[in-house]
Predict the structure of Cytidylate kinase.
Amino acid sequence: MTTVTHALVYPIVVAIDGPAGSGKSSVSKAVARELGYGFLDTGAAYRALAWHAEASGVDTDDAASVIGCLESFDYRIGTDPAGYGVHVGETDVTTAIREPHISGIVSRVARVPEVRTHLIELFRAIMAAEARPGIVVEGRDITTVVAPDAPVRVLLTASEEVRMARRSAELADVPAEATAEQLRARDRADSKVVDFMTAADGVVTVDSTELDFDQTVDAVIAVIRGSQPVTG
Ligand SMILES: Nc1ncnc2c1ncn2[C@@H]1O[C@H](COP(=O)(O)OP(=O)(O)OP(=O)(O)O)[C@@H](O)[C@H]1O
Ligand SMILES: Nc1ccn([C@@H]2O[C@H](COP(=O)(O)O)[C@@H](O)[C@H]2O)c(=O)n1
């Protein structure tokens, strides 16, 4: 009889949600590197779809038109935490999707239920295909909708003031108040679609307000190690 261990069949999923600027992508990437896991940035797909809609001349305020461009949305993303390119067709959009303009419109496509259904299927397929022993998946609805059965589920938070300060330090050319207002507006819009401000049952909150980056990574790894045996 052949014995197959869980880790050989499915990658262990570490689900991480949180508001904008809470450190989800940078912390998740560092955690994945440390544990030898893959890393999936789900927000990149919503951003890339917003980019694709605009590149296709679609009005992102019109849900039917956004749904219409799902068919031509040829999206690819890697899961290597050391470097993952984001492509739409032949175009490398890794940098373009981080532009403040895309951050300003992405919630319009993310609120469309058909978009969410389409992308959630895509995320689950990427997770299932992960060859490493685990995958850290971050976004807004990973702990509740995409992978509610994940063995590790974390809500990563930080005070609004700290999140604004961290994000504005990255965008030195943009006035701090404009960055802060965009972050607040995005959280307001996104919160109408999914709840990522409060931890669902069984989800562990890691509040990084008083933690530096390395301490936050360690705190998430401690949650993972406390949840189940891990490789790495
Ligand atoms: N604990 C921490 N201490 C200091 N800086 C941090 C900490 N956590 C994250 N950062 C920094 O905060 C900034 C925002 O982090 P990151 O981009 O990972 O957030 P995010 O939640 O993925 O944001 P978004 O949802 O807007 O994409 C980055 O510059 C990151 O290095
Ligand atoms: N699971 C998710 C992830 C993201 N979104 C939407 O995408 C936007 C960009 O996400 P970032 O993590 O890159 O900031 C975000 O503002 C949401 O509109 C989502 O809906 N669900």
Notes: Residues 18, 20-27, 43, 166-167, 170, 208, 211-213, 216 surround adenosine-5'-triphosphate (ligand 1) (CB under 6 Å).
